[in-house]
Structure formats: C-alpha cells, structure tokens
Amino acid sequence: MYCYRVRGPYATALAKIILDAGFELVDVSKKIAERLGIEEKANAIPHATVKESDEDPNTLIVIGYREAVDALLSELNSRIPFTVTVYEELGPYTTVAVKVVGYDRLGRCVGKVSEDREVVIQNIRECVEGAVVVAHIVKPSQRLGNGRAITLPGIAVLKDTLVLLDDREGKVFFSEHIRDYERKSLLNSLASQVVRQGLSIRWRSTAKSAPLEIIAKDLEAAVEDVKKLRDISVTEPGVVLSGEAIAFLTLTRASKEYLDVVRDAVVPTTPHHHVFRTCRKRFDVCIDLLDYLASKIPRDLLGEEIKEFIAQSITSKEVVLRHENPGRGFSEIGPMKILKALNTELGLALVGRRIIQRNGTYDGLGVEKKAGDIALSLIPVDDWFIAHLYFDQSGLEKGMYININTPPEICPASNTIRYLDLLVDIAIVKNNVRIVDLEQLEEARRKGLLEEDLVYIASETIKKVLAFVEVIRRALREPQFLEQ
Predict the structure, then answer these.
(1) What's the CA gap between 308 and 474, in Å, rounded?
(2) DUF402 domain spans which residues (predicted)?
C-alpha cells in the first residue's frame, strides 16, 4: 500500500480522499491527525506528496515515486471533477542524456532529450552543438508544447532521504524543512565522506526524522549507483535514470466546491472555503468565521448569501480577468470596471465595461478593432461562459464573442476574476453565428488534457448559450452601460 503526505490549503479534503481510497497517510500535521482520528507517523517516509504549487495556489502538485504518483493521480482524477492534468515524465532528479542544439534567443544553452522534447542546460561549461551531455532535471516543465525543463550537468540519484549529485561541486544542501541544528550536524557528518569525492548531496525533508541507519543505507546505495552510472557510455539522447514523477492538477471553481463538500464531511466548512483560501491570505480569519457559521446555518442559504455579498463587493471596482489556458499559462483581460450586479434569466451576473486601447482586428470576429471602442461583458456568477459585446464609439454593435469557460472565481481582495478557458468559443457578427476552435476542444480531449466531464459540459454550454443569445444581448444593451 502506498503512503502519502499532504500539505497546504487543500490538505484536509485531500487527506480524506486518500484514506477513502484505501491508501495511508504519513507525516501528518497534528491538526489533521486529530480531525481524522489517525496517527501522525512523523518518522515514516512517504512514497509521494500532494500539495499546492508554490507558483499557483490553484494547482495541485503530486510528486514522488512514479508508481505512487500514478496511483494517486488516478484516484484524484476519478473523484475531483473538472480538473486539468499535466503529467510530466521528466520529473525532478531525472537523469537525461541531452544532445546540445545551441543557444536560444535568450542566450541559454538548449538541447534535445528526444525528437520533440527540449531542455535548458544551465551552468554548462561549453555549449557545443551536437555534443551529448549528461544532466539532471531541477525544474520540470509545467507547460505543454514548447515548455522546457531546466537541467544542470551531472548524474542525480534519488533515494528516500537524499539526492546524490555527481556534479563535481562537493556541496551539501538541506530541505527547508530540516531546521534542527543537531540533525543538520549529524547529516553534515554523514555527507563529509562523499563531499570529498566531489559529489554533492541534497538532504530531502524526510531526512529530518528518518532513522540514521536508514539514511546511511540510502547514502551507501546512492554512491554505488553513481559509480555504476559513471561507467555507462552515453551517445544518444534519452532518459538515463528515472527520478521523481510529477503531475500538475489545475483546479477550477467546481473542483474546489467539490473539495468543500469533502472537507465538510470532516469539519464544518463554508461554501467557497477553498476559493477563499487561495484568494488572499488575509481572508483567513473571515474564512474561520464562515466555517463556524456553516455548522449553524444551512449550507445552501449561507452559500447564496456569500455569493450575493461577493458580487456586490466587487461592483464599482476595476478588475482583471485571469484567462487560464489549459496547460499553457494565462493571459489577462482588462482592466475592466464592474458596473453592476444584476439578476438575469441566466441568474446573477456581473456587467463589466472597458475601453479598447489599440487598433487591430477582433480575434474570432474578423471585425476591425479601433481604439475607443467599447466592450461590455456579461459575467454570469454560476455559469460556464463569459460574453463580450463590442460597440464603436457611436454605440453601433460590431459583434459578440462568447467565451466558454469554467464558472468564475471572484476575488474582491485582489480584484481578479479567474476562470479556465475551455478552448471553444462562439462568434456572432450581425446574424452570422460561428462555433470557433471546436477542433482545439477535440484535440484536448484526445490528448487527455481535458477530462470528459469538461468536454461534455463545454458542448452542452454551447447549446444553452445559443438559445440565450438575445437574452445576453438585451442585458448588455441597456443605455446606462454604454453611456458610462
């Protein structure tokens, strides 16, 4: 049975999912151990860890031994709805043979691990085109397509408590979680024998409490592995030795709402708990209060009141739409002023207004874009689309572009509205209606980037929106919105 460690704002919900799936939890925080009635097992070594990404609190990272990552990833994907998964085979400390291509436009040395996978090689002495060098992954790519992992020269050997690097540097690194001075001193003593050989050692967080005899065995085995790998002649690019596997799960608002329900089965949890937790840290006290109220007030009623409060609190503010493209980063739309929260036939929605700043062509519409044009946006609070209606300065409609996306996460504290783009859109110019980029949606489904639930709801949303085009247009064509 695999055992896992959980960390971060999703920890309670993830811990319950892991236990319900029949796996084991180790190195558990005292709070979660008390909530779930389990042992902390602080000295046990996990097969993998699941936590929030340091770079994006909306993304979960599952990292560890490949089989353990695969097993947990399968469970998470089957239980948490509406996620986007990027699985990176070239995980941390994977040793690869890289065929050097040369310098890219940023002056970085770039090489190929396979025909379609490039990596950046940092700190290389000579970037000679055609040379095959051995390097290890230090930062995996989180992006599809042209995303490049970052590597450093030398072999990396991964063990439970350490990573041994054949980099000729002879340095010792500690996980940020190893803080005890006495433990650091003991680990330094163990490392001294290999540092003199020009090997570097990176002590993993598990070394903070693992028995010293286990750590010593890991170190001995790693040294033997390095010696064997040094004797291998590498002439072609490819993977030399597997390191950790890593997967990135991007959560949507619907995903977080599911995790709210899971957490509520363990401890009273307010609707929107995980959206708020990843919105701004200063919300923490307010979230604790709402969690308390969730045990006193029906969740449905509390959820509706919170939603109304959020909509009203962001009205009159300037916001930015954070438009996230599955597996390819994000772009920002705005600033946009939220004019009003109104009730429509589609439910509660925000109306936003922005002035176009540059000349060009409206993507998808094929209509001329001029500086000074007015864009009015309808942002349904609970629906799977955002509509943008474009006008010239005289108020003549130019066209409507409807983006199909996950329900918005509205964060008044940072004045942002986040959603995940579902790749397909609707373009309307006069009476001409077109479905745009349907092939991209199908390709994402075929590649496994978008799960079937997201593909299905995108298709159903298109049908729904087409039946409500005039409702959307009427909501946005109120004179007060154009005349601001």
Answers:
(1) 22
(2) 349-469
Dist CA 301 CA 84 (whole Å): 30
Listed in order, strand segments (DSSP E) in 327-382 are 330-344, 347-355, 360-362, 367-369, 374-380
Q: CA-CA distance, 472 to 277, in Å (whole number)?
A: 32
Cα 459 to Cα 46, 346, 406, 465, distances in angstroms: 40, 17, 12, 10
Nearest to 464 by CA among 354, 347, 370: 347
Distance between CA atoms of residues 121 and 111, nearest Å: 7
Rounded to an integer, what distance in angstroms lies between the CA atom of residue 379 and that of residue 206? 46
**Strand 3-6 to 48-52 pairing:** parallel
Beta-strand runs (E) in 317-457:
318-324, 330-344, 347-355, 360-362, 367-369, 374-380, 385-391, 397-405, 409-411, 416-429, 432-436
Contact (Cβ atoms closer than 8 angstroms) between residue 114 and residue 147 = no
Find the helix or strand (DSSP H, E) in which 445 lies: helix 438-447
What is the pLDDT, as a whole number, of residue 474?
A: 86
162, 222 contact by CB (below 8 A): yes
Contact 361, 376 (CB under 8 A): no
Single-letter amino acid code for the residue at 230: R
Distance (Å, rounded) from C-alpha 329 to C-alpha 291? 32
Question: Which residues, in sequence order, are CB contacts of 58 under 8 Å at separation 6+?
Answer: 250, 251, 278, 324, 409, 418
pLDDT at res. 280: 67
Q: At how many degrees (to 10) do helices 452-467 and 438-447 cross?
A: 160
Task: Name the residue with higher pLDDT: 201 or 286.
Answer: 201
Judged by DSSP in three states, 124 sits in coil
Rg (CA), the chain: 26
Q: Which residues contact 116 (CB under 8 A, 6 or more apart)?
A: none
Distance CA 138, CA 167 (A): 13
**So what's the architecture of 306-482 in CATH?**
Beta Barrel (2.40)
Q: State residue 142's pLDDT score.
A: 66
Range 30-40 average pLDDT: 91
* Residue 78: both structure tokens together: 């089957």
Chain segment 166-182, per-residue pLDDT in tens:
988 889 999 988 988 89
pTM: 0.85
Cis peptide before 9 (omega within 30 of 0): no
Q: How far apart are CA 178 and CA 279, in angstroms?
A: 29
